[in-house]
Amino acid sequence: MASFAEWVRARDANASEAPSSGPPAALRVAARLSEFEVDGATETSKQFNWLVDTLVREEAERASVRRFKFEADQKRALLARLLARYCCRAVVGAECTIARTDGGKPHAYPVPAAAAAAAPNFNFNVSHEGDYVVAATEPRALCGADVCSADHLCRAGPPTRDQLRNLADAFAADEWAAVDAIDDAALRFNAFKVLWSCKEAVVKARGDGIVFDLNRVSFLADDPPGNAPPLRHVAPMGYPFRSALVKFDGVPDRRWRVDVDVLDAAHVASVARGPVAAMKDKAGRFRSTMRDPARGAEDSGAWRAELAEPRPPFIVLTVADLVPPRRRAEYDALCGAPARVTPC
């Protein structure tokens, strides 16, 4: 399957139609809050309100965006919903309605049958914190994504040991002991962010919501000692692993894997992948979209090989990139500038 970059190049060479092979089904995409500028306050901005009212199809999701008090939070919420729709178009090839499980996990419903060949268990997840909003998709495994900056802890530099100890209850005893033993504050904070992000990604993949205790999730490094995450702007300092197996209540479950991507010096993103059977979905709508629900249910060599398949690093998109091609002229008119051509 072509890489996302190859797909973009092919699309740009022939903007009227996508390559026949279609886009890859495992995406890692992001947007930055600092690059999302609109014409004035969100309440009165023509650009912001056009994006909400035109591109967010569900009334409940539109209301959720506007429910936030602070403009930064409104923008993060909108970017998350635009990224979700971008992912659906890229993988499924169509606009999808976004529904949620009782635990709040978003999913496409229904998923067109045409997506079954490339992505029989298509699902996605989104996360936002600090300057980044991220989204990830998976074609077969259950997917959870998280981005962590913990910026509220580091207004004046890395948090102290005492500040982090307030969150020790979210860690297994041996896990926290390893973090707490790191003398350097910056290195300790880096380790904290990776572990916290990975825990959140696992719980979000399952769809438990806030009822699952993070201290029940820990990790077993699955890469050579000292192997740093794929880095962009920072040195490999303090990051405990690039990839890891997941332990529940101290017991390794090799049907699960987490992968870490360091976005910049302040932000760490992680994606968890696991068996479809682990999803929490009382209503059953999300489960009904899975065309291979037994995938990964057993710990097998074939499933481990699937989890070991490489995944791309996150790529940053602009707001214009997230506008569907058929609506881009309208958005261009509001912005007064042409949008960059993208595949979705």
From TrEMBL:
SUPFAM superfamilies: 4'-phosphopantetheinyl transferase (SSF56214). Pfam families: AASDHPPT_N (PF22624), ACPS (PF01648). Its EC number is 2.7.8.7. Gene3D superfamilies: 4'-phosphopantetheinyl transferase domain. Keywords: Transferase. Residues 162-223 form the 4'-phosphopantetheinyl transferase domain. Residues 45-139 form the 4'-phosphopantetheinyl transferase N-terminal domain. The keyword Iron does not apply. This is holo-[acyl-carrier-protein] synthase. It comes from Aureococcus anophagefferens (Harmful bloom alga). The lineage of its organism: Eukaryota, Sar, Stramenopiles, Ochrophyta, Pelagophyceae.
